[in-house]
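Handout, section 4.2: multi-component inputs.
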Amino acid sequence: MKHDQPQLIDALAAEYVLGTLRGAARRRFERWQSAEWHIASRVRTWEGRLMPLALGLPPIAPSPAVWARIEERIRAADVARTDAARRGAARPALRALAAVLVLCAIFAGGYVAWRMTESVRLQTVATIKGAQGSAAWSIELDARRERLRAVALAGVAARPGHSFELWALPPGKAAPVSLGLLPDAGQLERVLTPAQRAALASAAQVAVSLEPPGGSPTGAPTGPVLFVAALIRA
Amino acid sequence: MSDPDSANSTDQELARLIHACAARDRQALRHLYDLMAAQMLAGMLRILKRRALAEEALQDVFVSIWQRAAQFESGRGAARIWLLAIARHRAIDVLRSERAELYREADVEQIAHAGAEGLGDWSSAGRSAAALARCFEELSGEQRRGIELAFVNGYSHADVARVTGEPLGTIKSWIRRGLASLRQCLER
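Output:
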């Protein structure tokens, strides 16, 4: 895909959502879309723009057989998945590997227990998924919710010339509160201010926005909100 | 649906149900089906023309929702669009598939008739619909008609050309310019 032609990408995304991109061009575009985050984002934007056109038609109730068939199909799909998992676990080579892993876990468990006595334990409170649905950041807090650590995972797609900023989203109409920048790689750890701790305590979700390098100059998100993730309650 | 706030609260409910599907809650899928299937079928039937074909594609859509629910990211107000988009893309894919060939007969006549059907009143369906309706007003009649025929009936450029009696190149440029104007207007 030609990255330097945003107008062409946008025009293709529009015709894809409209449905006039057909045949090989449509399939090619779908592959680009699943490989490149910024193309998928153009598609989401056009879906939001054009989908109201789909709301004017009077609803038509499906025949009762449709739901029965869906239930059958999802049951069959779920059974196939569990069977595959069970078969996989039963293989001898995997059984041997499992035994090794158990031994490793025992040692690792001992190591972690030893570490916990000397450092503060952090707990994952949110996992932020990237455009392709793979985990991009893990957000962790200590037991007193005073220290926050953001760990970059495989799903981070760095955007040169931009920073990712993390926000707590308080309920209702209250403004998002910045929790600082997210790392493109590795991890960042920081001590939270009382305002940030209060915002986190009331928030049900965190969001990630795209900002100029160094973060939002205004204290509120200025770029597009890319991802939203639920906060796991302790 | 005409009240933006009620449309919004339904969207939260839809998002909750999608998350429940990701946690393998089949009852949640049934609720989604009750809320969305009839709206989806209306759109898919309009594109696929044949009920048996549209209902089979609707099954695909709900199996797909069940399998892809974990990929849903609850950006604000996105649940209904996420669901409708899955249905729409599926209908377009089926339209050109071998499965559709089995049902294909006397298609040209059907297209000619279908072109005269109305679109229904979508412009009152919430805030984003109102914005789209406002921007549609700024398009030329031909651009508007080209985009509506393509979206609602799932017509290709060639289908739109056949229904309107205009050359293919003209249709392509109506639609391309119409979409560009819509983008400009909606970004204002």
